[in-house]
Design a protein that fits this description.
Strand order of the largest sheet: 3-2-6-7-9-10-1-5-4
Largest sheet: 9 strands, antiparallel
Low-confidence stretches: 1-21, 137-154
Number of helices: 1
Mean pLDDT: 77
Number of strands: 13
Radius of gyration: 21 Å
Oligomer: single chain
């Protein structure tokens, strides 16, 4: 009986812990990406960013009428591969595409990724809204009567 109570308590703590979890911080650059799906059988789009020696990051784009959009997290550096797949309601891939982008501090990041159709539909284009890639300053503090202090994350 004691064992069942311990297991039940651990399950409850685990469930509450998971419910309190939030999206981890990006740690890089968040770009708003969107795809117009008007006139296609596309139901959902999944985008992924991969880079040398870094785990891939996935994002499921949210549907808003005839488009899907979401925030894609890109780490600073060169040769970041952005790939996307579109699916119909049955879960079959309808479109695919990828592009390689450089995420350089002090620049503006914007890109397009053409997603070619697999079954005679029109191609889709994933677009990233322009975003400034900062120098990586995480915190700036001013102390009364002292100079400005900046702490850099890079």
């Amino acid at each position: 009986m004691l064992r069942q109570n311990v297991v039940a308590a651990l399950c409850a703590v685990g469930c509450f812990s998971l419910a309190g979890c939030s999206k981890p911080p990006c740690g890089g650059v968040e770009a708003l990406i969107s795809v117009s799906t008007a006139g296609t059988g596309t139901d959902r789009v999944v985008a992924q960013v991969s880079a040398p020696q870094a785990p891939p990051k996935l994002v499921l784009l949210e549907r808003h009428a005839d488009r899907v959009e979401g925030l894609l997290c890109l780490d600073r550096g060169v040769r970041r591969t952005v790939s996307a797949r579109a699916y119909d309601r049955g879960g079959r891939i309808t479109h695919m595409g990828q592009n390689v982008v450089d995420v350089s501090s002090g620049s503006f990041l914007t890109f397009e990724l053409e997603m070619t159709a697999r079954r005679g539909e029109k191609p889709l284009v994933l677009r990233a809204s322009p975003v400034e890639v900062s120098q990586g300053v995480a915190e700036i503090r001013a102390r009364p009567g002292r100079e400005l202090t900046a702490a850099s994350s890079r």
